[in-house]
Amino acid sequence: MSRLVLLDRVPLQAEAADEVVHGVDLRDASAVEAALAGADAVLHLGDESRHLATWLSPRDAVGFCRAALTAPLSTRFATAYAASADTRRFWELPAESELAYTPIDDAETYASLIADADVPADPEAPQAGPYALPEFTLRHLRP
């Protein structure tokens, strides 16, 4: 039996018998790891303005996987970011000749639900936001 785990910092409610809901601070790696134990699928509902630039919708995720699995034989290796057609996206999409991926959805549709969506992104900040800072990552290193 499959089990869907929903993670967010805001209260959510399970809508089906096979859903489990956890309110987790995504900056707490141990809490996230514990919440995901035994999960078959995970859905993260972003609540930071940075997510408006990096969001990948389920439909576009399928499109990206399909494009990767049907890439031309001339594409022996490619490094590509999977992101939707987000207005704020800062990553380049792969060249059509390497990966025929054309995203459809745009996270901007949900911008009104994000508290700090009107605050401009800091161009000097790391792409992963506070999750890439030494203060976050170093404390999660395991011996």
Polypeptide structure, described:
This protein is an alpha/beta fold. The protein has two domains: 1-45, no CATH class; 48-119 and 128-143, no CATH class. The chain is built from four helices and three strands; from the N terminus they run ββαβααα. The chain has helices at residues 29-36, 51-54, 58-69, 134-137, and strands at 4-8, 19-23, 41-44. It has a three-stranded parallel beta sheet, covered by helices on one side. It starts with a strand and ends in a 6-residue tail after the last helix. The mean pLDDT is 80.
What's the SSE blueprint?
Layout: E1 4-8, E2 19-23, H1 29-36, E3 41-44, H2 51-54, H3 58-69, H4 134-137
Parallel strand pairs: 1-2, 1-3
Short account of what is shown:
With 143 residues, the chain is of the alpha/beta class. The chain has helices at residues 29-36, 51-54, 58-69, 134-137; strands at residues 4-8, 19-23, 41-44.
Q: How far apart are the termini? A: 35 Å
How many domains comprise the coordinates?
A: 2
Catalogue the unreliable spans.
none
- In total, the number of strands is 3
Major sheet characteristics: 3 strands, parallel
**Strand order within the widest sheet?**
2-1-3
Return the string of H and E elements. EEHEHHH
What proportion of the residues is helical, as a percent range?
Answer: 10-25%
Structural class: alpha/beta
Rounded radius of gyration (Å): 17 Å
> Approximately how much beta-strand content do the residues carry?
5-15%
Q: Give the averaged pLDDT, no decimals.
A: 80
- Total count of helical runs of at least 4 residues: 4
Shape: globular
